[in-house]
Amino acid sequence: MTEPTPAFARATDAHELEEGTVLAPRFDANGLITCVAVDAATNEILMLAHMNAEALSLTMATGEAHYYSRSRKALWKKGETSGHTQKVSEIRIDCDQDAVIIKVTMGGTGAACHTGRRSCFYRTIPLGAPASADTKLAFTGDEPRFDPKAVYGKHEH
Amino acid sequence: MTEPTPAFARATDAHELEEGTVLAPRFDANGLITCVAVDAATNEILMLAHMNAEALSLTMATGEAHYYSRSRKALWKKGETSGHTQKVSEIRIDCDQDAVIIKVTMGGTGAACHTGRRSCFYRTIPLGAPASADTKLAFTGDEPRFDPKAVYGKHEH
Fold it and tell me: What is the interface pTM, i.e. ipTM, of the complex?
């Protein structure tokens, strides 16, 4: 994409940022905000990624989720490699405007995670003891729906 | 709190990180991971915040949400000022172990946001046009449940 970087408003004070109706996202030092993608029907969290100004604007304009890949340092249309697109039905922003939620309907197999699973959050951390080097995760049973090696030449997410 | 910083394992490769059962969180350059708190009953996203190693370990050990405040540069037990505690029933970690979800039951009025609202995500960004300096947010109807000025001497979140 070669569109110009969109211009966003800047909030002049905390009250305007939190209680106002002007979109004034606070991109971090790397030009990013956090985005959480949730299933539009169930609210299940599917993945967490980042957007730069261009990715947010393209998501708004097209209704298809776009992100910025920190590892590849590039704009990334979700599903462009794998077919696991995300059709966006709602975007929400938080109180201090540095994080967004997108409510999405998955394309493809319904798997949002590059490992082939529906959600990236497929393991639990145990409760009841402090963390240690021996803390073990448990799988939730969210099994891969596709073989990542067959779909990706390299890591998408 | 004056507990020693907990020791976490480090994953030695991507496969172990993504498919293994060892908790090996990837804290960022500031020592933080992202945490999304969701309502345990409805999956509604309540807030997004950050945890350092100590906050994650205390959350695991106590079942009460702890965060790290970037603005105050301090460990923060959710609800210690306002009574809006978060009882944690599940913690999940994502594929590359740099983000967690906590499923919580809110204390107090049920408001997770420092503005008094249930969720920090109380405004929507419009779809159908690219971003501009004139983009207007819409409120979802998540009305404040308490008066933040009466509860906080200063900004908790």
Answer: 0.93
